[in-house]
């Protein structure tokens, strides 16, 4: 029987092909003969050269015509490094959502953003990924030029004695109502001693609720300080290790005011030499913070700080995370902890100059938010000592002096800045403001004007348009209204006439009102029916020896004498005043629209002959002002509101919105006495009246 044919047997048996005789009579193998005789050495060399030349010319073409972006290829290779062996083994741990060691449908949901990663996995990864051990010897800082910062002793940042009672976050009954609507948070204001000059000016830092625009609505109102707090107006930038900061925008004024775009800022260097080796771990914790997962971020940075206690960047990240958590929890204690951590980060060795600067700036800002103005001042003074060439830090130091009412020190700081950087717009507007507060009206104008025209960051502020226009008006310069118009176009004023800085949007705006318009007919009738009783009580305390009438102190008079006797201020009775005029106060007790008006006053006003009050505006559109005539000379007394001039009458009430420009003349032969009653704007809701902060 013939053997069975199969592949196995064929593999075992090797068959040698038969030899064939070619036409030249030479025997060759059959396979060679079938191929036509095979390749000669010359042919092989020729083909080799052809292929080589093709490769050379292809390479030349790629380079010559720039067909491949090699830098991009290299960067992408670095960015998307992936261990293929892990794919074969099924170890896609980077996308393992449930910690089971494989990549499945649940993990895909994480990639698509349909599911959050479990906290347990995040914590496990923090422990695994951050397992890089810190070297025994600390890296040298030659490449990073770290600044040797002298330690800041505990007593270097003196806290005000009143700080313990300052809580802009906690124990706020009016922070959120039962409906869950966000409202204006009441924060402490400057004390009287620290508010004499800068803080009492219209639109000053401490009186401004939150931002230059000071927009307030029923659903979202802006915090305003009450006792000793600088509201968080301009947050200090938080430069990150892996983020390029944006170029600061320049205000878009009219064509002649648009400066050249500032040069792009350099990326801050926050990592020292060693920290670059743990950048991935720092970035992972930062990612949590930027996503708003502040609790997880705090834990992640605490882990890093435990592993790398000498890392300034890890400590700075912990401070930022604690800061964010304080804001989320509305906790002063947590914010104080963050302030302490900022200090720790700034004192560590091998901190880069950029990190020291960012850390101490943030510390000063948060100290100001908590009302620790003197502590913030000391922190900024330390910054200026370390970075004496940084004019922006000196500008911040000037503001810190202004916030505690130290105009003289602020003036010296801005003089130093302008001596070094004469075109610094921020220094100019603040220096001009100080000159105007010293009643150096003419001298203040060029600084305010040039500063606004510079368009520098921090100059596009309603306060500076306000004061420049006011200074020009006092010099008889009609270009004041050009600046008011620009302030209106920039969104700082409701109109050229209505220039209050503390406004609630959407309220009816008109200069003059009738009693019927206000809806407060009963109050008006009570005042007019009892005007003689009110007049007699006022005259009984007008004797100068009583000292109850005090001179107007807001620098609103061009000339003359103007005295005031206050009964209610910011919705509260003013001391013992009502004991001197009990009948008048008794008449008003049942009108909460007046006695409860936290943004107004109730007071007597006496003006002597020869008095002129400059054109000015009140601070807010949240109130209307009633004037009850008590003693009115027959001629010579008048009040202008916008372009409408009127006169008082004894026993009659005039009502106007003092957020509009108004002006007063007293050219009679005897004194003029009126009773001023501020009331809430009638369109404010009860909720707004309860939650708007005092002015």
TrEMBL record:
<dbReference type="GO" id="GO:0016020">
    <property type="term" value="C:membrane"/>
</dbReference>
<keyword id="KW-0325">Glycoprotein</keyword>
<feature type="compositionally biased region" description="Basic and acidic residues">
    <location>
        <begin position="159"/>
        <end position="170"/>
    </location>
</feature>
<keyword id="KW-1015">Disulfide bond</keyword>
<dbReference type="Pfam" id="PF05118">
    <property type="entry name" value="Asp_Arg_Hydrox"/>
</dbReference>
<keyword id="KW-0597">Phosphoprotein</keyword>
<feature type="compositionally biased region" description="Acidic residues">
    <location>
        <begin position="219"/>
        <end position="250"/>
    </location>
</feature>
<dbReference type="InterPro" id="IPR011990">
    <property type="entry name" value="TPR-like_helical_dom_sf"/>
</dbReference>
<dbReference type="GO" id="GO:0005783">
    <property type="term" value="C:endoplasmic reticulum"/>
</dbReference>
<dbReference type="InterPro" id="IPR007803">
    <property type="entry name" value="Asp/Arg/Pro-Hydrxlase"/>
</dbReference>
<dbReference type="InterPro" id="IPR039038">
    <property type="entry name" value="ASPH"/>
</dbReference>
<protein>
    <recommendedName>
        <fullName>Aspartyl/asparaginy/proline hydroxylase domain-containing protein</fullName>
    </recommendedName>
</protein>
<dbReference type="Pfam" id="PF13174">
    <property type="entry name" value="TPR_6"/>
</dbReference>
<keyword id="KW-0812">Transmembrane</keyword>
<keyword id="KW-0472">Membrane</keyword>
<feature type="domain" description="Aspartyl beta-hydroxylase/Triadin">
    <location>
        <begin position="37"/>
        <end position="113"/>
    </location>
</feature>
<dbReference type="InterPro" id="IPR007943">
    <property type="entry name" value="Asp-B-hydro/Triadin_dom"/>
</dbReference>
<keyword id="KW-1133">Transmembrane helix</keyword>
<feature type="domain" description="Aspartyl/asparaginy/proline hydroxylase">
    <location>
        <begin position="528"/>
        <end position="682"/>
    </location>
</feature>
<dbReference type="Pfam" id="PF05279">
    <property type="entry name" value="Asp-B-Hydro_N"/>
</dbReference>
<dbReference type="InterPro" id="IPR019734">
    <property type="entry name" value="TPR_rpt"/>
</dbReference>
<dbReference type="InterPro" id="IPR027443">
    <property type="entry name" value="IPNS-like_sf"/>
</dbReference>
<feature type="compositionally biased region" description="Polar residues">
    <location>
        <begin position="187"/>
        <end position="211"/>
    </location>
</feature>
<dbReference type="GO" id="GO:0062101">
    <property type="term" value="F:peptidyl-aspartic acid 3-dioxygenase activity"/>
</dbReference>
<comment type="similarity">
    <text>Belongs to the aspartyl/asparaginyl beta-hydroxylase family.</text>
</comment>
<feature type="region of interest" description="Disordered">
    <location>
        <begin position="132"/>
        <end position="250"/>
    </location>
</feature>
<feature type="transmembrane region" description="Helical">
    <location>
        <begin position="44"/>
        <end position="65"/>
    </location>
</feature>
């Amino acid at each position: 029987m013939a053997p069975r044919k199969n592949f196995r047997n064929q593999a075992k048996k090797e068959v040698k092909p038969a030899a064939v005789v070619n036409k030249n009579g030479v025997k060759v193998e059959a396979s060679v003969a079938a191929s036509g005789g095979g390749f000669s050495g010359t042919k092989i060399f020729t083909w080799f050269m052809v292929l080589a030349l093709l490769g050379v010319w292809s390479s030349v073409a790629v380079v010559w015509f720039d067909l491949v972006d090699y830098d991009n290829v290299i960067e992408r290779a670095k960015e998307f490094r992936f261990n293929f062996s892990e794919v074969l083994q099924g170890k896609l741990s980077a996308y393992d959502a449930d910690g089971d060691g494989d990549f499945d449908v649940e993990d895909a949901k994480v990639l698509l953003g349909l599911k959050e990663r479990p906290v347990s996995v995040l914590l496990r990864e923090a422990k695994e990924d951050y397992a890089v051990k810190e070297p025994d010897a600390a890296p040298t800082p030659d490449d990073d030029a770290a600044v040797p910062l002298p330690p800041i002793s505990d007593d270097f940042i003196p806290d005000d004695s009143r700080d313990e009672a300052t809580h802009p976050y906690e124990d706020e009954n009016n922070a959120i109502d039962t409906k869950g609507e966000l409202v204006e948070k009441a924060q402490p204001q400057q004390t009287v001693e620290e508010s004499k000059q800068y803080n009492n000016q219209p639109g000053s830092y401490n009186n401004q609720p939150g931002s230059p625009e000071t927009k307030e609505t029923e659903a979202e109102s802006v915090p305003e300080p009450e006792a000793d707090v600088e509201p968080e107006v301009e947050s200090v930038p938080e430069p990150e290790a892996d983020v390029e900061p944006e170029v600061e925008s320049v205000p878009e004024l009219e064509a002649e005011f648009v400066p050249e775009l500032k040069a792009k800022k350099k990326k801050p260097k926050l990592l020292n030499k060693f920290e670059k080796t743990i950048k991935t771990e720092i970035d992972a914790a930062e990612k949590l913070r930027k996503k708003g997962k502040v609790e997880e971020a705090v834990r992640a940075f605490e882990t890093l700080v435990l592993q790398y206690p000498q890392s300034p960047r890890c400590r700075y990240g912990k401070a930022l995370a604690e800061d964010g958590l304080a804001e989320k929890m509305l906790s002063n204690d947590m914010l104080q902890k963050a302030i302490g951590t900022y200090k720790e980060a700034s004192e560590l060795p091998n901190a880069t100059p950029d990190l020291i600067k960012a850390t101490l700036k943030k510390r000063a800002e948060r100290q100001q938010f908590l009302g620790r103005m003197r502590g913030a001042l000391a922190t900024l003074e330390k910054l200026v000592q370390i970075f004496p060439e940084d004019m922006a830090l000196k500008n911040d130091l000037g503001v810190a002096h202004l916030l505690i009412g130290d105009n003289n020190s602020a003036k010296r700081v801005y003089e130093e800045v302008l001596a070094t950087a004469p075109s610094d717009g921020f220094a100019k507007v603040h220096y001009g403001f100080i000159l105007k507060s010293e009643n150096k009206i003419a001298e203040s104008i060029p600084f305010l004007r040039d500063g606004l025209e510079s368009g520098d960051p921090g100059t596009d502020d309603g306060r500076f348009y306000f004061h420049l226009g006011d200074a020009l008006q006092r010099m008889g310069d009609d270009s004041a209204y050009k600046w008011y118009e620009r302030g209106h176009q920039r969104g700082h004023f409701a109109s050229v006439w209505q220039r209050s800085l503390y406004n609630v949007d959407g309220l009816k705006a008109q200069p003059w009102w009738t009693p019927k318009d206000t809806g407060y007919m009963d109050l008006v009738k009570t005042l007019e029916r009892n005007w003689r009783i009110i007049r007699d009580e006022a005259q009984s305390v007008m004797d100068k020896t009583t000292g109850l009438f005090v001179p107007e102190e807001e620098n609103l008079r061009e000339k003359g004498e103007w005295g005031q006797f206050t009964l209610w201020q910011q919705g509260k009775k003013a001391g013992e005043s009502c004991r001197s005029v009990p009948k008048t106060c008794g008449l008003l007790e049942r009108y909460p629209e007046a006695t409860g008006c936290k943004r107004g006053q109730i007071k007597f006003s006496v003006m002597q002959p020869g008095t002129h009050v400059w054109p000015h505006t009140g601070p807010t559109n949240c109130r209307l002002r009633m004037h009850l005539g008590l003693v009115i000379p027959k001629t010579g007394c008048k009040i202008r509101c916008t372009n409408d001039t009127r006169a008082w009458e004894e026993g009659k009430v005039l009502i106007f919105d003092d957020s509009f420009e108004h002006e007063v003349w007293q050219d009679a032969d005897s004194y003029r006495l009126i009773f001023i009653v501020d009331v809430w704007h009638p369109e404010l809701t009860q909720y707004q009246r309860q939650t708007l902060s005092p002015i």
